[in-house]
Amino acid sequence: MGQSTISTHLSQLKQASLVEDRRTGKNSLYRLTPADVSPLNEILSRAAHEVPEAPIDQAAMRRVVKKRQDKMRIFFDSVAGRLGKDYVPGKSWKSMAEALLCLMPPMVIADLGAGEGAPLFYSLKEPSA
Hints:
Blueprint: H1 3-15, E1 19-24, E2 27-32, H2 38-50, H3 54-86, H4 93-103, H5 118-123
Antiparallel strand pairs: 1-2
């Protein structure tokens, strides 16, 4: 099928709330809506047995997913070797933020899932006399 035909089908499935999409860069990724999809899964399972291209499509899908996983793994492997060199105390944003917090007067802070709680730690310090 052409890309425009597939886009039309995906648009209709999205309008029917059977799929949802998310943008990553210039790509749109689609997945089945997490709601109760058991009737749809049954239809898709039956259709897979009737469509001769289904095994080829499934193999292609597995290759695409594996390629994405490999790409992510290569990226994180390349970054992992630099973390100890580039992100050391005094050079990171976290260190700078903690230094700025030391200069701030004590105050009431609500720390709601903001990481390790550094603002809370510094707000608990006694003010110097």
